[in-house]
C-alpha cells in the first residue's frame, strides 16, 4: 500500500483531504474486481482496478500521484478554495521523501499529534480577509476544544493556517513554562474549561521542546510519534499550568470523538460508507431505540440532503429525526487501527434504522432459490410509491439503486440516501451524478428531469424479477439489459412485466410513464402474478 501512504503524506503536507470512491464492483463474491478513484478536495483522479478494495485504492492513489507529477504542481488548497501563494509549492518528491527543514517546524502536524494523544479537538477556521484579487490575504484561527489559541494571516490559506498553528503551539508552551502571577497560564484563566495538567501534557511539552532544538520528526510520521519521543518527563512542582483536555468517553470508541454523539448514544457500530459519508448504528441512551447515524463532512450538498429529508414524510421513505453539526475525525474502515489526525466540520443525520438491510442484501439472499414473483411485485410497488411521493414534492432522487433502498423489520420498503437529491427547478443539472450502472443515458449531460428516476426503476424492476445466479452473470448481461435486450426465458415468463420495463427504459425520457401511471400498470400485472414462482 505504498502509493496510498505516499498520497496521504502528500495531502497532509498541503492540508488536503483525500478520499476514495468506489466506481464499480464487479465479479462473483470469490473473485471480485473493484474500480476505485481518488478524490482530493473536489478534484477526481483517474480510476484504477484491483482484486481487493484496498489494492484498488492503492492503485487509484498511484494514478493520482502520477497525474499530480505530470501537472508539475500539487492539487493544493488553491484548487478547492482559490488562492495565490507567493512561492511555488515544493515538488511532490520533496514533500514525500524529504524531512522538513529544521528552520521551519511543522506546527500543524505537531498539533495534530497533540490532538491524537490527548483526545481533544483541534480545528481551523479560515476566511478571506482582504487583499487584491491577484494577491489575497487570508486569516485563520486555530481552536482547541472550541477555544481560540492562535490566529494567523498569509497569502494562502495554508500559510495562514501555519501561522495560526504556530501561535497556538507557542501559547501552549508559554502556559507550560509560565510561573508568575503577572503571566497567568491558560489553565488558570480557563478553570471552568480545563482541569489540572496531566502527565501526557508534560510529556507533549517536552517533545515540542525537542523539536525546537532541531529534533523534529518527519511530517509524515504517525500520530503516535509524540508518545514515542516523550521518553523523559520533566519534573514539575505542584502548580498546574497547562490544559488537560478530558474526554473520557472518547477513549472508548474508535469511530467518533464528537461530544454529542458520545453523550446521547451507546453501542456505536460502523455499518457502511459511501461517497464521503460514514453510517453508524447506535442506540439512543434515553429512548433506547436504535438509529442510523450518517456522518458526512459539512457542505452545501449535505445541507440539501437534510433539507429534503426533513420535508419528506411517507411510509416508503427513510424517516428523518434530527441532525446536529460538530467537529470529528473521519473513520477509515481500511485503516481502523489508527485515527485520522485531521478533524472536520461534520453533520450528523439521525435517521430510521432498517434491520433487514438493503435491497442488495435481499437480492443476494435470493440467488439460486425458488423465488415468488408476487413478493418482487410487492417490493417494486412500494418503491414506486416512494418515488411517486418524491416527485410530487418537486424533487429528483438521481441515485436510485438497490443499495439505497432499505427493508425494515416489518418488511416495509424505504428509499434512502438523498445525497444527490435535487429540485426540478434547479438549472442547470450536474453531469454524471449517480451510479453509472443505474444512471439514465441523459444523465451524461446537464439536461434531465424526473424521468431519470423512472429509468432506474426499470432496471430495479428487472433485477428483482430475474435474480441473476451470481454478480458475475449480472455484470456480463447488464449492458444489454440497459438497452432493453432481455434473455429469451425472461420474455416468455414475464411478458406483461417486460411491457412495463420497456416503457421505463425508453431512450426518449418523455416516453417513460410517470410513477402514478406505473402503479396503474402494476395493478393489472399483480392480478395474474401473485402466486407465480420461478428459479433460473
TrEMBL record:
Domain DRBM: 2-70, 106-174
InterPro entries attached to this UniProt entry: CC_SR_Kinase, dsRBD_dom, Kinase-like_dom_sf, Prot_kinase_dom, Protein_kinase_ATP_BS, Ser/Thr_kinase_AS
Domain Protein kinase: start-end pairs: 265-536
Entry-linked Gene3D superfamilies: 3.30.160.20, Phosphorylase Kinase, domain 1, Transferase(Phosphotransferase) domain 1
Enzyme Commission code: 2.7.11.1
Record-linked PROSITE patterns: DS_RBD (PS50137), PROTEIN_KINASE_ATP (PS00107), PROTEIN_KINASE_DOM (PS50011), PROTEIN_KINASE_ST (PS00108)
Residues that hold ATP according to the record: 294
Region (Disordered): 63-84, 174-194
SMART domains: DSRM (SM00358), S_TKc (SM00220)
Polar residues bias spans: 183-194
Keywords: ATP-binding, Kinase, Nucleotide-binding, Phosphoprotein, RNA-binding, Serine/threonine-protein kinase, Transferase
Membrane-spanning intervals of the chain: none
Pfam families assigned: dsrm, Pkinase
Cellular component terms per the entry's GO annotation: cytoplasm; nucleus
GO MF term list: ATP binding; eukaryotic translation initiation factor 2alpha kinase activity; RNA binding
Family, as annotated: Belongs to the protein kinase superfamily. Ser/Thr protein kinase family. GCN2 subfamily.
Name used for this protein in its record: non-specific serine/threonine protein kinase
The organism of origin for this protein: Alligator sinensis (Chinese alligator)
